[in-house]
Design brief:
22 strands, eight-stranded mixed sheet, 611 residues, 17 helices, five-stranded mixed beta barrel, single chain
Amino acid sequence: MENSKRTVTCGALSAADVGKKVILNGWVHRTRGLGGLTFVLLRDRYGITQVVIGDKADEKVKATAASLKTEYCIAVSGTVAARQEKDINKDMATGQIEVEADEIEVFTKSDPLPFAIDEVRQKDGTLVLPNEDLRLKYRYLDLRRAPMQHNIILRSKVPFATREYLTGLGFLEIETPTFIKSTPEGARDYLVPSRVHPGKFYSLPQSPQLYKQLLMVSGFDKYFQIARCYRDEDARGDRQPEFTQIDMEMSFTNREEVLSTTEGLMQHIFKKTMNYDLPATFDRLSWDDAFNLYGSDKPDLRFDMKIQDAAFMANLSDFNAFKEGASAAGMEIERHKRSGLKALVVKNVADKYSRKKIEELEALAKKYKAKGLAWMKVDSEGKFEGGISKFFAGKESEICPKLGAEKNDLLLFISDSHWQVACTAMGSVRKQLGKDLNLYNPKDLFHFAWIIDFPYFAWNEDENHWETEHHMFTLPQKKYWPTLESDPGSVKGDLYDLVLNGYELASGSMRINDPELQQRIFKIVGYSNERAQKAFGFLVQAFKFGAPPHGGIAPGLDRLVMLMCQEDSIHEVIAFPKNNVAASPMDDCPSFVDDSQLKDLHIQCTEKEEE
């Protein structure tokens, strides 16, 4: 073929192009022989076009077509022809036409594939995927699959929409360093040894937190960055050692402006990339209510099954387990003014839920430190049966109206002396029931909510001291400033999380800009002046030169795209992710390095994995 450069992509041709001479480039998706005809489905990232090699084709072209195998990379020259009415494929964007080939050039051949690029589905429509490590080992092949191409293309569109929206509001995109000082931020740092400063290390940023605050001190009142971040923590479906966040910070602002700006950003992203309209404003829940009603500070609100307080039931029988939760005392219970006896009413499933299924829910609750999961059912006559029903027989008229329980409902209970344990355990049960019973509202694909009014401090029982729930630069709500030292447990932070479909999508806060207030926080969490100066001295020093009030937020880009694609793992939206042990099977990363490299870096390994 004299000129093999494509003139059109494999997803662009339509009936309007009939009669045109075109050149296509792509991969052989599938071939099929039918009498004297050979059909080749040619694929690129834009779509698939059917190529036909007929009886009138040149013998050389026929021979080349007969030799083609899946994933050969080829060029095809030919003429666009209309398919006969009976042959039109309405499931293909190019289904009205085909290209009658007059020349074929094979760029490169393909070895036999380790797995099928074409989709393989079970009878119920479920996509059959290869083992994940196999997919990651041959990631360049996995990325050829249509679902992965869709995900990566959407991921490309999201940062573009982000830049478009934020720059339109006057935000500046500013890069911050990748090699930084190691500071305590919760997870372990990834460290980079310095060759020119023996014994010293750079740290890869867990977030640009300190630097974006310094940019506010510098007078750049609206900053954002598509920021690469690194945390040395155990991997899971929605975590990676390296990840990306949409990092934002604003000066002379308040919580309302940060929240409304973020809502506007999400609305723009979804409309621009998916043509999906989000609500004008998002739901808001206090941290206390989120736990009390849904058992989580990242509740899935696509279904409306709320956890209820069942303390009233403790006085209706001599069931001792309920008395413990209802009469629980202590700082945690008093702070929230709620009991540790929780109920969940599962509507119209009593006849479907066997004892075995309930025991599976109990095992889940126990993973979250619950002592057990009590239960009973409301039968067809409105009477209690099964489980703990013998303790509450005859009390149906007192219990059912208060809990909203009706015939054929399943009632679940958790009782614990710790309010948060009872809430969290029941929240895990609620989440599992939502999945098992498919309780999600089909019209509510993306349910955003703000969680606000978080506790500022948490008591570390193991180390016997207070810690910050978020980070030490979060601004405490002003009404608590007089009692920071005397009553840390009651302090609420001026911080907020954005939740989407049961995932924490973003976390942010207003920041401390007063050096004296910052020193008070350091002291409460046990940071000496020397330790604080060593870790954060450069930031505190900057605050002494007129730091403006400021605040920000950082939505996780990987997690956002994962949820937009309705995937369960961020592996599905990252081009080259690590597996669940933070390794890459494709390029054997991490790997050993030569001793000479270690010597240059003044490092000696005392222990190595077996090669």
